[in-house]
Design a protein that fits this description.
It is a single chain. By secondary structure, this protein is an alpha/beta fold. The chain starts with a helix and ends with a helix. The chain has two domains: 2-80, Methyltransferase, Methionine Synthase (B12-binding Domains), Chain A, domain 1; 90-210, Rossmann fold (3-Layer(aba) Sandwich). 42% of the residues are buried. The protein has helices at residues 2-12, 16-28, 33-53, 59-80, 103-114, 128-137, 154-165, 183-189, 198-210, and strands spanning 90-95, 118-121, 142-146, 173-177, 193-194. The structure holds CO-5-methoxybenzimidazolylcobamide. CO-5-methoxybenzimidazolylcobamide binds at residues 42, 45-46, 48-49, 52-53, 59, 62-63, 66, 93, 98-105, 107-108, 144-146, 148-150, 175-180, 195, 197-198, 201.
């Protein structure tokens, strides 16, 4: 779809105002918010990520692309969150210690809120102690963790271990995700679930909320 490829291109170029303008135009012409997100914003960021890996663009370009992503997300968030389910339980979410990537985690939060869950977003660079303390404070049944760096993935295992040490395994359950994370890694560290994207995060959190504990 033409609008979406234009959005993706403007995002790759880090043109925040242009991304916002194109997103608004697409929405005004009747394109679904989810399609604008997937085919426009996420697709553009994926291309930028590949260029960064191949050293075709540099960190400042990636930062500008991230800003442009948020310019578009600001317009989509109210539409994606317009779920009308009753309150379905509380999840705390965050990006693990040492990791500043928050776009994917924020998308997951938007989807979970849209599905009717109360979401306590702890932000990025969240320590294992904070994840567990905040989950207890808010009576959360689920901790959702995001990691985008292979070097920060062990932070997820720390949370699982801390829950175990405090006798909270089975009472507070964990779901993990992020580009380098896999189902196998989730099994290896004893996390309760792995989610590939925001949509599957909603499914996994729904399952975990319904489990006894
Ligand atoms: Co960084 N970065 N970055 N970066 N960055 C990656 C992750 C990298 C793969 C780029 C590359 O080399 N191709 C690479 C990691 C390599 C590795 O570990 N193997 C990398 C690197 C190296 C770095 C720095 C170390 C660079 C440096 O300083 N030299 C540095 C680290 C800073 C730190 O965290 N301590 C760094 C910094 C940055 C920016 C600050 C510039 C910026 C982040 C801005 C921000 O988040 N506010 C940034 C960005 C934007 C990226 C890329 C290009 C895009 C990430 C993104 O937002 N994608 C990324 C390359 C890539 O992933 N292709 C890259 C869009 C987003 C919608 O997708 O986050 O995958 P994603 O989330 C998805 C799913 O993964 C999933 O659902 C989301 C929606 O579909 N998901 C979950 C995510 N969390 C989930 C949780 C769940 C369930 C699903 O349950 C709870």
């Amino acid at each position: 779809m033409k609008d979406s490829s234009e959005i993706a291109l403007a995002l790759e170029r880090g043109e925040a105002k242009e991304v916002a303008r194109l997103v608004q135009t697409a929405l005004d012409s009747g394109v679904e918010a989810k399609q604008v997100l997937d085919d426009g914003l996420i697709a553009g960021m994926a291309v930028g990520g590949g260029q960064f890996r191949r050293h075709e663009i540099f960190l400042p370009n990636v930062l500008m692309a991230a800003k442009a992503m948020y310019a578009g997300l600001d317009l989509l968030t109210p539409l994606l969150q317009a779920g009308d389910d009753p309150h379905r339980g509380t999840a705390v979410i965050g990006t693990v210690r040492g990791d500043l990537h928050d776009i994917g985690k924020n998308l997951v939060g938007i989807m979970l809120r849209g599905a009717g869950f109360q979401v306590i977003d702890l932000g990025n660079d969240v320590s294992s102690e904070t994840f567990v303390a905040k989950a207890q404070e808010h009576g959360a049944k689920v901790i959702g963790m995001s990691a985008l760096l292979t070097t920060t993935m062990p932070g997820m295992a720390e949370v699982v271990e801390l829950l175990k040490a405090k006798g909270l395994s089975g009472k507070i359950r964990t779901v993990i995700g992020g580009a380098p994370v896999s189902k196998e890694f989730a099994e290896e560290i004893g996390a309760d679930a792995y989610a590939f994207d925001g949509v599957s995060a909603v499914d996994r959190v729904s399952d975990l909320m319904e489990m006894d504990g």
